[in-house]
UniProtKB/TrEMBL annotation:
A GO term, aspect molecular function: enoyl-CoA hydratase activity
Keyword Transit peptide: yes
Superkingdom of source: Bacteria
InterPro entries xref list: ClpP/crotonase-like_dom_sf, Enoyl-CoA_hydra/iso, Enoyl-CoA_hydra_C, Mitochondrial_ECH-domain
Lyase is among the record's keywords: yes
Protein name: Enoyl-CoA hydratase domain-containing protein 3, mitochondrial
Function recorded in the entry: May play a role in fatty acid biosynthesis and insulin sensitivity.
Family as reported in the entry's similarity comment: Belongs to the enoyl-CoA hydratase/isomerase family.
């Protein structure tokens, strides 16, 4: 590749976005950097997620990537460069880890469903990003890994998202061995929802997202928030919270409309209120 071509590739937008029929697609396009979660990439992702949260036309978010690597996790070159700072990089590392943690929580707290579309390798914080999304669809060639232990840096922050999606022993297996798992194993572990042949990925993902986008956004917002909040509660407290949430949901106009439409055997007319 010529220097001009290489520069053109680097200078294109870090993210590509497209809104179609309520589905907002965000695609990381730094394949030459393995779509690493550099400070710049995390800032760009956070900004697009906020746009999605604020735009009433957005009902579902798809998060994908160009290239053979969905996301390689933190930018190790960026982390290594900070070693030369007066404090050995500590302040920079604190800032980067906080920014990454904030990004993952932003995904979870987004009032709209976020679906990871994984077409390659998702490793370290890239695997964490997949685990943080509400749903995940992967090609049959996708792989997943938390390999920090192999370079003397345990995947402690990826562990938070991983351990909330995968059974304890499976999570520890990934964290302690640092070995990759294939898409079939990831589905068995509970890390992803579906496996799709690459040739059919776009068709399946779009249809999958449009089904969710057809629901009341008010209902989806209430449900997503309640799901994550009750996970952290004791059983009795979770039921009290869920019951109160059901009452709140029943008072919404869309619940009244949805129940009426079901009883009258017609399609509901959502107002998202």
């Amino acid at each position: 590749m010529s220097d001009t071509a290489a520069n053109d590739q680097i200078e294109k937008p870090m993210l590509a976005t497209l809104l179609h029929q309520g589905v907002y697609r965000i695609v990381m396009q730094r394949p030459e950097r393995m779509n690493a979660l550099s400070t710049e990439m995390m800032t760009a992702l956070s900004a697009e997620l906020q746009k999605a949260a604020d735009d009433p036309a957005v009902r579902v978010v798809l998060l994908g990537a160009e290239g053979k690597v969905f996301c390689a996790g933190h930018d190790l070159k960026e982390l290594t460069a900070a070693r030369g700072e007066a404090d050995g990089g500590k302040a920079t590392y604190e800032r980067i880890m906080r920014q990454c943690s904030d990004l993952m929580q932003q995904v979870v707290r987004l009032p709209k469903p976020v679906i990871a579309v994984v077409t390659g390798v998702a490793t370290a914080a890239g695997c964490q990003l997949v685990a943080s999304c509400d749903l995940a669809i992967a090609t049959d060639t996708a792989t997943f890994c938390t390999p920090g232990v192999n370079i003397g840096l345990f995947c402690s922050t990826p562990m938070v998202a991983l351990s909330r999606n995968v059974a304890r022993k499976q999570a520890m297996e990934m964290l302690l061995t640092g070995e990759s798992i294939d898409a079939s194993t990831a589905k068995e572990f509970g890390l992803i929802n579906r496996i799709v042949p690459g040739d059919y990925l776009e068709q399946v993902v779009q249809k999958y997202a449009e089904v969710i986008a057809s629901k009341s956004s008010k209902t989806l917002k209430i449900g997503k928030e309640a799901f994550y909040r009750q996970l952290e509660m004791p059983l009795s407290e979770a039921y009290d919270f869920a019951a109160a949430t059901m009452v709140e949901n029943m008072m919404a106009r869309d619940a009244e409309e949805g129940i009426s439409a079901f009883l009258q055997k017609r399609k509901p007319d959502w107002t998202d209120s």
